Amino acid sequence: MAKVNPNPDFFGFAELLSESERAELAEIREYLEREIKPIANEAWANAEFPAEAIEKFAKLGVAGVQYPDYGDGKPRSALFTGFLSVELNRVDPSLAVFSGVHSGLAMGSIHGGGDQEQRDRWMPDMVAMNKIGAFALTEPEGGSDVAGGMRTTARREGDEWVLDGAKRWIGNGTFADLVVVWARDEADGNVKGFVVEKGTPGFTATKIEGKIALRTVQNADIVLDGVRVPEANRLQGINSFRDTARVLAKTRGGVAWQAVGVAMRAYELAREYAVERVQFGKPIASFQMIQDLLVKMLGNVTAMFGVVVRLAQLTEQGTAGADQAALAKAFTTTRMREVVSWARELFGGNGIVLDHEIAKFFSDAEAVYSFEGSREMNTLIVGKSITGISAFA
């Protein structure tokens, strides 16, 4: 009998990690399977965030692994943090987004855009998950055009700033302790970042209902009505949207890794089902068309791994560009969308119920495909890079 290779990392990209990194990731996978997976599906079905998840993630200790100066002091490679995202997303994309918004977007804004005092004030509690972060950039009338069309304003009055406006699709927004809000300074027209603390008067967050993707993520509509923030809460290193874009370039690469995790799990579920599901007296994996679907899925996952692994290596070298992150995001999320579609097809009618999990990954993939810049917007970033001509309207 031929040797069976069920590993979705078919070319062994994980072998590029150090032995200690592989061991740590194995421990993380075991913990996620034991502690997070059992609560994931019910939370997704009910569109509720499981309160115990914060404590479980705190015990796992993955918040802020990118910032060893505030974590356990142990530097991790960009490749390790990428594979960590894969592990989180193959268990549950919604809870992976909760973690990513907190560690990547919110903490990344403070670590990269705050001064030393601000980092010292907020980062330790965020690493310990005593305080949960959110990132408020997108607006009701501004998604892809948020840079030029931002309507939320900031007006300085003495030692305070007054924020007015609205934000939408803000992950963790309904319960976050610290919300990084981006607003346009009325005085100079530049975008600046502000940390709004929970309980600040004039700040209201309302849960967005009726989602069909990432249902566990508590996305919020946020209204800022004369919200007063001290100058000490303005991120001192953020003086224009270019500074904001530096944060987004890093997280855009993170979404590419997220897409790998979603696609990988969809392939795993489809392969397992094909081997076990019997029709016409034999496993459906014995049919040529089913094997064709599985191989196409595996091919996509393998190509996606190749892109994100190389992006991690460039990041480690300090040479990764925003255009390369944009290409990675556009390519991997498009291939992911194909994989989850083929996987759902393979499951037939069973692919539309939560029992077999694939329905969740099929739905969640639509959100991953859309956020951190649509495929079209990322395409235009890359197009400008390769032609020298901007096609932005």
Automatic annotation (TrEMBL):
It comes from the Bacteria. Coiled coil: none annotated. One of its GO terms (biological process) is fatty acid beta-oxidation. Keywords: FAD, Flavoprotein, Oxidoreductase. The keyword Metal-binding does not apply. Its cofactor is FAD. The keyword Flavoprotein applies. PROSITE patterns: ACYL_COA_DH_1 (PS00072), ACYL_COA_DH_2 (PS00073). Its EC number is 1.3.99.7. GO terms for molecular function: acyl-CoA dehydrogenase activity; flavin adenine dinucleotide binding. PANTHER family: ACYL-COA DEHYDROGENASE (PTHR43188:SF1), ACYL-COENZYME A OXIDASE (PTHR43188). Belongs to the acyl-CoA dehydrogenase family. This is Glutaryl-CoA dehydrogenase. It comes from Saccharopolyspora erythraea (strain ATCC 11635 / DSM 40517 / JCM 4748 / NBRC 13426 / NCIMB 8594 / NRRL 2338). The gene is gcdH2.
